[in-house]
Amino acid sequence: MVRKLLENGSLYIKNDVLAMIASICAEDTEGVTIVSGFKDGVTGILNRNFHKNGITVFEEEEGIALEVKVAIEYGLEIKRTCELLQESILHEIKSMTGISLSNLTIRVEGLTNSQALATI
Question: What is the number of structural domains in the chain?
Fold first, then answer.
């Protein structure tokens, strides 16, 4: 949970809000699908990190870090697609919460082929 001091008190932003912002950014990025699995949830609980739907929020001494696990649509340039996703997440979290992430890792876990699914 992130705590920000306000003029007359405090603002608390839960980690799942940050994960939700990142998730919406991923949905809005062409060719990106969030990847999640049971093992990730268990690992997150054991490491005391927040994990939701392929997005892990880490509270570190340097600040808040995110790891986003995705699958990229076959045929897209992986590096450029990940750069667009990173830019989108960093911008949205900063503009909506005022938080600058200390680190944002995008992990490409696989490829999707939406064209093959469309022909079935």
Answer: 1
